Model the fold of this input.
Amino acid sequence: MPDTGLLPEALFQPADAGGRVVVIGLGYVGRPLALEAAASGFEVTGFDLDPVAVAACGETIRATSRARDLPPASTWLICVPTPLDAEGRPDLSAVAAALETCRAHAPHGALVCLVSTCQPGATNGLCRRILERYGRQVGRDIFLAVSPERENPGDPMGGPRRIPRLLGAPDPVSLARARAFWERITDRVITVSAPEVAECAKLLENTYRLVNVALMDELHRAFAAFGVATREVVAAAATKPFGFQPFWPGLGAGGHCIPVDPAYLQMEARRAGAAASLLDAALAANRGRPARVLGAVAQAMDGRLAGRRIRVAGVTYKPGVADLRGAAPVALLQGLSACGVDVSWCDPLIREVPEDLARWPRAATFAEGVPEAIVLGTPHRDFDLARLAEAAPLVFDPFGVLPQDPGGRVRVV
Ligand SMILES: NC(=O)c1ccc[n+]([C@@H]2O[C@H](COP(=O)([O-])OP(=O)(O)OC[C@H]3O[C@@H](n4cnc5c(N)ncnc54)[C@H](O)[C@@H]3O)[C@@H](O)[C@H]2O)c1
Done:
């Protein structure tokens, strides 16, 4: 342990020995974490600028939108969004704002842990810079760590306790403080030698997914051209007991992580003069996938799309999740609409229709009114795929999951 000028026991007993925790950002990641911390015996306060997110906590934990109501907690978790801006560049403004909240309200000796996905170097760079403004020193007056979230939305095997947590910190005392905290919340904590290792590992996980998803989408077109069923090919390859992990074709990876995180990695790689061309290719292939499916639909419909009644069945970014962020089916709807298609959509998971979907009529079921064509946007578990395959004269399947009909109405695209 380095000579920090503090007694070791003081390091492990911050002012708030009772274990108060503030979770900044109460969205998909922050709220479950806040609940798990509360269930693990911490006194949790959630903080979110959005009163709707605060209200969504109900009675489960104390939550507020007013920074002045925040307690002098010993642990502060940053769970705010890290999206891309309009130009596709990483937008760290929410992380910077959350760090300012920590800097202003976290007491001497508190631990700040970055949970949001950031670029390599963010913890030792941006986070440290903001926390050390006005004379505090990380590792002495305030402690800092990074433990990127690895949740897989919609996965019943997920949740903050079950998914192993990577943890890195700039100094051993911060690491020990963070480890003691996370070990109460999570079954398995894996410490790494530096924050950059945890940051890079998180980005590697999602970059690996993106590159392989993009590869499968591209090969799917090739296999379809050979008249071979992609899913059978993948299942056959997956019988190899080593060196292969199956990925399945689709309409393109959506959501807030897979198509976003690699851009954070690439930004730093570019800065270091080490940009990966394969990453640019995968990002472009993934972004372009809905347009390629649209092209295949147009071709199958003799190039005449204007006025045709086409339905997109399933519009969320993945099956079983009511989340539209970065959803490829929405990009497809936009593309079809721009071609003058009389487009509609259905999705059993969407309760309240957000503004960007309200532009197009919603159908109660994929079969309602018998559209001229259906494109499978998201293969929700609730969909009866055998019925869907017969619900319109033409049914387009970017996933290769529909039963093939002898009449040729199902087109793998
Ligand atoms: N959603 C996932 O499944 C998932 C999985 C792994 C990693 N992540 C990462 O976790 C982070 C959070 O993602 P999310 O999906 O929970 O985002 P989200 O958009 O669902 O929630 C973020 C919340 O933070 C709030 N917020 C924004 N700025 C704030 C500020 N300055 N102070 C207080 N609150 C603020 C927003 O109002 C919002 O409620 C991101 O970096 C994301 O990439 C998400």
Summary: Residues 1-10 have pLDDT under 50 and may be disordered. The first helix runs from residue 8 to 12. The chain has 13 helices and 13 strands. The CA atoms of residues 386 and 403 lie 6 Å apart.
